[in-house]
């Protein structure tokens, strides 16, 4: 009889004998692999923590005890043993269960996550609140070695060591971020100490032991082996210095060891860090072999691990075009350097890293540092390109404002995943960048209508003397051919793609292609639309926008960004500033709520920003305008 279908919650799990747990672990892995093979998802991270998940739920008393999963991309086993087995096949689907912990989904999900390194801060807040309000419950934060590279995690450790509240931090160390983990901390944890560090340590230890008088003998034993010297430098030192009790390293797939240790740790007072060594992708050979490819993966054949091929070959992705264009430009310009915060593959920088390793920097999950590091590079004459997902740049807003834009440093932000990303859902949609960046002085913001324009925009950005953000969507391009000769676009100038007098559709970025499609459909109905490719959200092409508005009296704006403060707002500001009264404006974009997960096409349809939604909005506006004669009453006035 299978065990997993009968686990409705941790109480059922606790009723199993320890001998049954490895069988349950195998069933969980099977369900995760079979499901993710169909839905796509974060396979390798979840496979790596199956035993850890079982041990945590076996020992702790969730939901009274709070178990927090950092990033949350490894929480599939947690979902399966906390009452979501029956719905697990809907993972990451529209209307289905989330790929990340979500408070609205289950009382066992105590923190909504998706962005990394928040777990220790939130856990410290929770344990402090429990303490102050006299409530029972232990708080556990499970954080990966990659996520531990973020400043936020260290801010929390520092504060936790000071507050000395009861808190368990589990460091899930698999020596991987999405790609192999980087940085001095990673080397320290894995004890790959540099020769220099080991030598210095040896010298200092020798001098100390000899001076102490009693150390001669100890020293003679130690010096026989470099390894034993290195073993004195334990990862524990770091955490003990931060006032944590350090336990480990533990073999992360050995259930008895995990359960016994957690049982002991559960009642310790003060902050404790349990260091657990796991294998990313554990139990599925293709994922063990290529944990980076299986970190987050689309549908695949579970028998082989090979990706399921789309029925029709898709055009290259925006990321691929960014990748090849940047490398091409960097080959000719030694000032160009590339920076990623732990996303070399996702942002398309792997090719750059291979070709120009000394000009490539993976700084770890440290977006804030990435941006200020870029500012420093720019101040000394280099042309840094920070390739970052729109959603993760949110974390580095102050650095964009204070370190880059205040003094107008020529840093290029290659903002991938601008707009709706699909199945990762609300934590990952690049919904806000046009809004939050538009407020920043000195920054130029552009968004290409297709992958060919992306090439020209990157070229333009790298030839601009100040900071520039180029934002482009997740996924395939439009399928246009690529110009070989790259040209600098005039900054702040859009283009008219089609002329008509009934309505103007002013679109930016991924909104342009469906706007053109909508215009075709409108023409078939006898409605002639002007279509403007704005290209720049800042500075906006005010002449072009006002001319289109004046001519038609009706403007539909299209963007894949929050309407609040976004591109449509920029158009409204422009019309108001130019004193263009009487123009009817309908803004299409993301509403003032977090957009849920789902395929990009589904979400765009639902939100009315696909071709049909734009057509319908333009048609309605044109009809409205005809009824009221709005265009005739326009009185354009140039301001200033
Ligand atoms: C702020 C932020 N930047 C980047 C990411 C993208 N990201 C998701 S998981 C991950 C690696 C996490 O590594 P680790 O914590 O060691 O977990 P593992 O996948 O190894 O289990 C990265 C970089 C993110 N989620 N949040
Ligand atoms: C968990 C996380 O933040 C990343 O793994 C993210 O899911 C990657 O998204 P892409 O699939 O768009 O690269
Ligand atoms: Mg890791």
UniProtKB/TrEMBL annotation:
Cofactor requirement: thiamine diphosphate; Mg(2+)
Binding-site positions, thiamine diphosphate: 73, 114-116, 146-147, 174, 284, 367
A cellular-component GO term for this protein: cytosol
Molecular function GO labels: 1-deoxy-D-xylulose-5-phosphate synthase activity; magnesium ion binding; thiamine pyrophosphate binding
Pfam families: DXP_synthase_N, Transket_pyr, Transketolase_C
Residues binding Mg(2+): 145, 174
Pathway info: Metabolic intermediate biosynthesis; 1-deoxy-D-xylulose 5-phosphate biosynthesis; 1-deoxy-D-xylulose 5-phosphate from D-glyceraldehyde 3-phosphate and pyruvate: step 1/1
SUPFAM superfamilies per UniProt: Thiamin diphosphate-binding fold (THDP-binding), TK C-terminal domain-like
Matching InterPro entries: Dxylulose-5-P_synthase (IPR005477), THDP-binding (IPR029061), Transketo_C/PFOR_II (IPR009014), Transketolase-like_Pyr-bd (IPR005475), Transketolase_BS (IPR020826), Transketolase_C (IPR033248), Transketolase_CS (IPR049557)
EC number(s) per entry: 2.2.1.7
Entry protein name: 1-deoxy-D-xylulose-5-phosphate synthase
Family according to the record: Belongs to the transketolase family. DXPS subfamily.
Cofactor binding, note field: Binds 1 thiamine pyrophosphate per subunit.
Origin species: Dissulfurirhabdus thermomarina
Name of the encoding gene: dxs
UniProt keyword terms in alphabetical order: Isoprene biosynthesis, Magnesium, Metal-binding, Thiamine biosynthesis, Thiamine pyrophosphate, Transferase
Region (Disordered) location: 284-315
NCBIfam families in UniProt: dxs, PRK05444.2-2
């Amino acid at each position: 009889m299978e065990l997993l279908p009968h686990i409705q919650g941790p109480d059922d799990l606790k009723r199993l004998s320890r001998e049954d747990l490895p069988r349950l672990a195998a069933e969980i892995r099977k369900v995760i692999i079979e499901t993710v093979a169909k839905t796509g998802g974060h396979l390798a991270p979840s496979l790596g923590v199956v035993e850890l998940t079982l041990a945590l739920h076996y020992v702790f008393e969730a939901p009274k005890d709070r178990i927090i999963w950092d990033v949350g991309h490894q929480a599939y086993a947690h979902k399966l043993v906390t009452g979501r087995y029956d719905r697990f096949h809907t993972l990451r689907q529209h209307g289905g269960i989330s790929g990340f912990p979500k408070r609205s989904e289950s009382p066992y999900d105590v923190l909504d996550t998706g962005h990394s390194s928040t777990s220790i801060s939130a856990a410290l807040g929770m344990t402090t609140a429990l303490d102050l309000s006299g409530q029972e419950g232990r708080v556990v934060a499970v954080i990966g070695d990659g996520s531990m590279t973020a400043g936020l995690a260290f801010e929390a450790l520092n504060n936790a060591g000071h507050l000395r509240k009861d808190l368990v931090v589990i460091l899930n160390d698999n020596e991987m971020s999405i790609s192999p983990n980087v940085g001095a901390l990673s080397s320290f944890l894995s004890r790959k100490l540099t020769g220099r560090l080991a030598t210095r340590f040896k010298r200092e230890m020798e001098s100390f032991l000899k001076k102490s008088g009693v150390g001669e003998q100890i020293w003679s034993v130690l010096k026989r082996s470099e390894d034993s010297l290195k073993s004195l430098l334990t990862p524990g030192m770091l955490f003990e210095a931060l006032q944590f009790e350090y336990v480990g390293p533990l073999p992360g797939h050995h259930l008895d060891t995990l359960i016994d240790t957690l049982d002991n740790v559960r009642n310790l007072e003060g902050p404790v860090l349990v260091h657990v060594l796991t294998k990313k992708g554990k139990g599925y050979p293709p994922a063990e072999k290529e944990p980076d490819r299986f970190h987050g993966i689309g549908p695949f054949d579970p028998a082989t691990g090979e990706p399921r091929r789309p029925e029709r070959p898709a055009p290259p992705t925006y990321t691929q075009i960014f990748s090849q264009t940047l490398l091409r430009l960097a080959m000719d310009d030694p000032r160009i350097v590339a920076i990623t915060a732990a996303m070399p593959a996702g942002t398309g920088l792997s090719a750059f890293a291979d070709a120009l390793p000394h000009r490539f920097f993976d700084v770890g999950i440290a977006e804030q540092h990435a941006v200020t590091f870029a500012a420093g590079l720019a101040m000394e004459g280099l042309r840094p390109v920070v390739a970052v997902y729109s959603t993760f740049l949110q974390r580095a807003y102050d650095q964009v404002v204070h370190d880059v834009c205040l003094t107008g440093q020529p840093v290029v932000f290659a903002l991938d995943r601008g707009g709706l990303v699909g199945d990762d859902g609300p934590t990952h949609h690049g919904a806000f960048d046009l809004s939050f960046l538009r407020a920043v002085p000195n920054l130029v913001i552009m968004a290409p209508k297709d992958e060919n324009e992306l090439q020209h925009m990157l070229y333009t950005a790298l030839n601009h003397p100040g900071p520039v953000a180029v934002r482009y969507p997740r996924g395939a391009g439009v399928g246009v051919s690529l110009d070989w000769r790259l040209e600098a676009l005039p900054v702040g100038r859009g283009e008219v793609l089609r002329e008509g007098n009934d309505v103007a559709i002013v679109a930016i970025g991924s909104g342009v292609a469906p706007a053109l499609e909508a215009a075709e459909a409108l023409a078939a109905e006898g409605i002639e639309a002007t279509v403007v490719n704005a290209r720049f959200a800042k500075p906006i092409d005010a002449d072009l926008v006002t001319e289109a508005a004046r001519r038609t009296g009706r403007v539909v704006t299209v963007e894949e960004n929050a309407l609040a403060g976004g591109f449509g707002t920029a158009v409204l500001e422009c019309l108001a500033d130019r004193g263009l009264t009487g123009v009817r404006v309908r803004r299409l974009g993301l509403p003032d709520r977090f957009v849920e997960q789902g395929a990009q096409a589904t979400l765009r349809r639902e939100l009315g920003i696909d071709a049909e939604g734009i057509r319908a909005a333009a048609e309605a506006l044109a009809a409205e305008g005809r009824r009221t004669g709005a265009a005739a009453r326009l009185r354009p006035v140039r301001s200033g």
